[in-house]
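Working notes for the structural subgroup meeting. M.R. asked for a predicted model of this chain before we commit to crystallization trials. I am recording the input and output together here so anyone reviewing the notebook later can reproduce the run.

Input as submitted:
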Amino acid sequence: MNVWIDCYAPLIGRVFMGGFFLWNGIQAALNLPAAAAMFAAHGLPYGSLLAMAVVVVEVVGGIAIIIGVYTRYAALMLTLYLVLQAGFLTNFNDDGDLNRFVLNLGIIGGLLYISTDKNRPWG
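Returned structure, recorded in token form:
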């Protein structure tokens, strides 16, 4: 048994991946009007409701991945969130948006990898 591979590497990976979403969720919560305005600027209705939903998804999903509870479901939920975000909020004519889209693809890959881990005690 290699302790690094079996224990520490997955834990550090979960802290980094979950921490990314937890941080973004906290930032969105602290700037809820700006998050709602971003949704409205992209033509999406119910900007305030969407902003609150994003905060809940990112914070709850991030914490679940960090502590290792329901990681499979949290990773799949965050994957769906990123796919929807990429589909509705990406302007493919803008280089900055295109870079964020490609970054999201990498994060989706990591989340899908986390969702396949069958060794988590609570899913």
